[in-house]
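Consider the record:
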Amino acid sequence: MSKTLFLKLRKAFPSLALSENVPYRQITTLGVGSALPILAEPEESKTLAALLRFLKSNHVQWFLFGAGSNIIGMDAPYPGVGIRLSGDVFKAVEILGNRVICGAAVRLPSLCNRLADAGLGGMSPLCGIPGTVGGAIRMNAGISTLEIGKFVRRIDGIYPDGTPYRADGNSVEWRYREATIPERVIVTQVEFELTNSSPAAENRIISDELARRKDHEPVGRTAGCVFRNISDLDPAGKLIDLCGLKNCRIGDVVVSDKHANFLVNVGEATEADFGTLCCLLRHAVAEKFGYFLTFENKMLNGDLARRLASSPPAPRVNVLCGGNTSERAVSLNSGKAVATALHNAGFEVDLTDLKRCTVTRSMRKADAVYPVLHGGFGEGGEG
């Protein structure tokens, strides 16, 4: 199939950069898996849109590669096309006072350095995040005290059917390691708004952040942090460490002894090695702490992603809020906060605005019901 598809792409897009059987060691930082059958590298939005329309009309799936810094390759051939933005258009940076217009293929560390040298402040603490700007926007990349979504003024991209996407930064909900950008939109350009600073101050921040990362993060082939943190008090690495799993090894994938939320490829690691070790870590943390670790890494193999996310399966919790008393608004806010905390802990969560005393379908489906109701038929106990 891949050879036939490659030839069809070559005929439809004679000027498009296409590669066959690209080893994952060349296009991902972790380097597990065999090789990507087809990699397409459009150089501007018009070609990207046409490529997406072609893939859609031919029922071909695709996977977007940025810097490959959080991507897990496959042992089996990927049944579709890998896409990586290339060319000057996607790598351009334009500084207009406090506004910065940036192509999605720009590496985030490079952007932070350029902004610092221009005396623009705010994003320097993100200098150690190794991905592209597009990938950083998609997952609202950040550190414990700062996320990139804070600086976004506008996002441009392309839907899977080839039509344009545009959103103001304040219309996007920026959550912990995710944003409400439609799932299959490919981000092509981002406009940021920053504050005035000085090159000396910003470069000092960058130097300090890189030194901190050097002290806490391992060297070698990794895909960054594998799991999301439960909270600031319960980071995933700490939980894995408390399970006694530093240096745990499956095949050529090892839990770092420096930071337990990093898995290191120390040789010729396979996707199977990675998956087996991740299952072991999730089971251990769930058994010891009752948390269900959520992946930050992105996997080409959708079956593996689904299997790992349900091994072990997380309980479903129905959070009840709202009610019919004067404290309804407070209850809605409290319920949302509880639901967010449970979601961060890996639980499957349904949030129900309950306006009358009844048993709903979502309650019956849940493993547990968590009432956050004030007065009335909630904590007041009225029927």
User: Anything to note?
Assistant: The CA atoms of residues 233 and 359 lie 35 Å apart. The first strand starts at residue 17 and ends at 23. The chain has a mean pLDDT of 95. The two ends are 63 Å apart (CA to CA).
